[in-house]
Amino acid sequence: MSIRINRVYTRTGDDGGTHLVGGHRVSKDDLRIECYGTVDELNATIGLARLHANTPATADLAAILERVQSELFNLGSQLATRAEDLRPTQPVILARHIDRLEQEIDRCNEQLPALTSFVLPAGGALTAHLHLCRTVCRRAERLAVSLMHREPLSPEVVQYLNRLSDALFVFARHAARVTGEAEVLWQPEKT
User: Fold this and answer.
1) Cβ(15)–Cβ(103) under 8 Å?
2) What percent of the chain has a predicted confidence (pLDDT) above 70?
3) What is the three-state SS of 93-138?
4) I need a labelling partner for 21 at 20 to 30 A (CA). Which of 64, 88, 108, 151 fits?
């Protein structure tokens, strides 16, 4: 797939509208725009997490996050396109992407100690950033569910976001383990 961006500004959005892939014009506060905008935000937060995964101990995680960023671009493209406008060659999220996340969750999780409490989104920089990614992913998932109730949407979209948020939680725990950082557990009486 070849993409060429010659001009960053077009002035066509100055009235608060934008075009979906396929040419349909919608308001910039349309639920579909909010949904793929949040996926874009998630992609940016994963990019921040990758900055902190640039060590030998977390190289495997950095590679996974890089792949996930590409998958999120595919997902964003899919969300920016109405079902009737999807092209056969357009990259989309498929069951195999979800299966791969599940395999990575299982591989990381089998090396982790059992939880005895909820984990606070804290710890080192990588761990905290992965927890931030998880919360943005959950918001993207909620928006995708809302969109699914209004318009035709591939079920893999919601499934992928659901699995990715689970993966980000496990990746945060994995990062704490391989970097030697202590997980910060919720202490309900510490208020």
Assistant:
1) no
2) 87
3) CCHHHHHHHHHHHHHHHCCCCCCCCCECCCCCHHHHHHHHHHHHHH
4) 64
Whole-angstrom CA distances from 49 to 60, 73, 127, 129 are: 13, 17, 8, 5
CA distance 167 to 111: 14
Rounded CA-CA distance 65/141 in Å is 18
pLDDT, average across residues 109-136: 90
Rounded distance, CA 74 to CA 98, Å?
A: 13
Can you tell me the distance from the alpha carbon of 112 to that of 104, in angstroms, rounded to the nearest whole number? Answer: 13
DSSP run (H or E) holding 46: helix 31-52
Q: Looking at residue 65, what is its pLDDT?
A: 98
CA distance 2 to 176: 38
Burial of 129 (0-12, 13-18, 19+ CB in 10 A): buried
pLDDT per position as a tens digit, 146-159: 999 999 999 999 99
CA nearest 133: which of 105, 95, 161? 161
pLDDT at 60: 95
Least confident range from 16-25, 89-98, 108-117, 163-172: namely 16-25
C-alpha–C-alpha distance, residues 125 and 175, integer Å? 10
CA distances, 14 to each of 11, 18, 41, 50, 126 (Å): 5, 9, 21, 34, 38
